[in-house]
Amino acid sequence: MNRNVSDPSAFLEKRTWNRFTPLERTSRFLFYFVTLAAIVVSLQTIEIIPEFLLDAPEQIADMFNRMWPPDASYYPSTIHEALMETIHIATVGTLLALILAIPVGVMVAENVTQNKFLNWFARLILVSSRSINSLVWALLFVAIVGPGPLAGALAIAFRSVGFIGKLFGEALEESHKGPIEALEATGAPWFSIMMMGYWPQVLPTFWSVALFRWDINLRESAVLGLVGAGGIGVALSTALELFYWDRVAMVLLSMLVVVALVELVVTQIRKRII
Q1: What is the pTM of this model?
Q2: 112 or 143: which carries more pLDDT confidence?
């Protein structure tokens, strides 16, 4: 018996629903297989020693017993000055990074700088800055200008240029064309177009990125002292080398408090400015 073609059930009986297409199932299988293979190879490469893993809980408990109670007397004598130096390193490094990142961000934005050579040169600067860790920058500047907070501030600045410049350039490229075209129609020079057309649109993003990067730099500058670039990392390194675990605990606790306070300050500033 022939079914009526207008009957919906005739089509529903022949339809089969699959969650994934064959290509999607193959792609998912390959992804899981490669991920599992990478994990297996990584575990073989890092050479995990089972005896150390089994002994880890006891070692952690012993370390915490040595760290408690923290040595509060270590704060006024050493930690306070080192903390202030860390904040100064992060602040000066961020300000220097902003000065360097603005022209790089302008050059990388293709709608602002219509020169392919400058675009690619700016991209090279941004990639170079982000690809080198802050500790490596600190080692380089310690070798150039000697140990101390200057090397730390320069390391923070050169590390931050790539982050700030990339986000600033992307904000310029996402600017609305209406005000820009209106200024160009009046014959305004390039600098006026930049200050009156682009800058008001990217100003909220600029302040947001600057505050966010300063928050990150404060955390990064805390460890630069481990390689001689000043800050509280010097006090931490000294306490670790002498096995003064109660002093190590005081340093870590001080860093935690300062980072939490800075987070609150940055949040309040963002609410008022942006």
Answers
A1: 0.74
A2: 143
